Amino acid sequence: MSRDLHLHRTPVDVLNYEIVQEQASALGRMGRALEEALARLHEFDAAHPTSDAPASAQPARRKLVTEAGHALWMFVVQREASGLRDSRQIMRTYNVPGEVQRCMGLVPPPSTHAAKLKS
Predict the structure, then answer these.
(1) CA distance 44 to 58
(2) Across all residues in the chain, what is the average pLDDT?
């Protein structure tokens, strides 16, 4: 019977199915990117406790926070494009720090490598 259903699918049905598959795939990629960015920030914080962190470590930490904020923004946008509008669940599930939430949507500064390529 599944073959009968497959034969009666219209091109629009096939296209819609492909679009939903790509949305789900992109959502997964964005979620993994957020997890990775948050893990890098957590690892940095574990290696440099706030009380012991030298002032020279602050730019590196700010960069990690900004990158995590960008990854969060990308994930939230992809979720909203898929019809999932409530981002509170993301903040709880991924345990997103407030400082990352506050820089959500900021574009990280270009890397040194990218800046050299433009010159």
Answers:
(1) 11
(2) 85
Closest CA to 60 of 76, 47, 72: 47
Would the CA dihedral through 112, 116, 117, 119 be positive or negative?
positive
pLDDT in tens, 66-99: 999 999 999 999 999 888 899 999 999 999 999 9
Cβ atoms within 10 Å, residue 99 = 14
Neighbours of 70 (CB within 10 A): 20
Helix, strand counts (H, E) of the chain: 6, 0
Asked whether the CA dihedral 67, 70, 76, 78 is positive or negative, the reply is negative
